[in-house]
Amino acid sequence: MRFWLLMLGGLLIWAVHFLGLYLLSSAADVARGDAGAWNAFGLTFSALCLASIGALCWKCLIALRAKPEATQSFGLRLAIAGSLLGAIGVVFQTLVLVVGGRM
Quick one: 8 exposed, middle or buried, by C-beta within 10 A (0-12, 13-18, 19+)? Predict the structure, then answer.
């Protein structure tokens, strides 16, 4: 079960990021406060998600250097691919904060 979480970790972080930005956007709309503060919080949250994805990729790369068996090697490569896809998703979702200016 832990290996499945490792393989799907990048995609799970992407899903958490999507949910987190959605909740932040809803809270900013209800609060009608300073948009800059909400954007800063959203950017910080996105940076933390990207750092988590980077740490997951690093862990998988370190594990691949140990020359694991074929099945585990495939799973680690799949985890890296999913993490990179998740990182692309996080970046594109964060671009709304950077370009849009208001959450």
Answer: middle
